[in-house]
Amino acid sequence: MKLQKLTKPRQGEDKRRYDDACGLAHALDLVGERWAMLVLRELAYGPRRFSGLKNDLQGISANVLTQRLTELEARGLARKAKLPPPASVQVYEATEWGLEAIPVIASLGRWAARSPLHNPTLPMSHVSLIMSLQTLISPDLAHGLDARIGFRLDATSYVVRIHHGRLDVERRETVDCDVVFTGPPSVVAGVIHGGAPLETIGVEGDMALARRFLTLFPLPPKVM
Question: Are residues 136 and 76 in the same domain?
Fold first, then answer.
């Protein structure tokens, strides 16, 4: 009976494969299961604890998250790690190969944002917000700007550097920043992408720079 229980999932997984030599088909074999791509997205900027992943992936169950992490690990896209003391807790992180998929995931999000069915008012994780900034930044609008912008998004902090029309990301404390934005990720996203008043979030530092920063991320036009 135990042998049957172990072999049935493997048989089921084989049936779900596309049996197609196209790289896209195999990509879907790797990350095409429900939640798999979003779990990998959440590992884009560094190691994450299981509890943090579950909190930021709205609607996922602990069992499904465990299954997806196990699958990503088995496929070479994620791995377990341990934070150094004093934390000394187990975390999950993307492998080097897994990180190669992040720009593809980000580009897919930009493409899907053109859909008239896309609802930008739904909850957004801190990773989603920062990834949207990396994906949507306009090199023309950011021309000549060299600045460090900090984000305190609930319990997680980031510093992004804008230079040469691009945006680089570090997940760290907001020191040595020209501007720091503070607030829940969805609220900060509403200010940057939705035109909500700047006063709805916390802002420290150069206010003129803060206002210019908000103009650097035009949303792609909707499909007519």
Answer: no
CB 100 within 8 A of CB 207: no
Q: For residues 152 and 173, what is the distance between their CA atoms, to the nearest angstrom? A: 8
Q: What is the DSSP letter of 175?
A: -
Which pTM value belongs to this model? 0.90
What six digits make up the tokens of 31? Answer: 């990350």
CA distances from 130 to 12, 32, 126, 142, 213 (A): 36, 23, 6, 16, 13
Task: Identify the domain boundary among 77, 109, 141.
Answer: 109
| Nearest residue to 191 via CA among 203, 209, 206, 178 | 203
Q: In this structure, what are the phi and psi dihedrals at residue 116, rounded to the nearest 5 degrees?
A: -65, -15
Report the CATH number at residue 41.
Answer: 1.10.10.10
Q: pLDDT tens-digit profile of 28-64?
A: 999 999 999 999 999 999 999 999 999 999 999 999 9
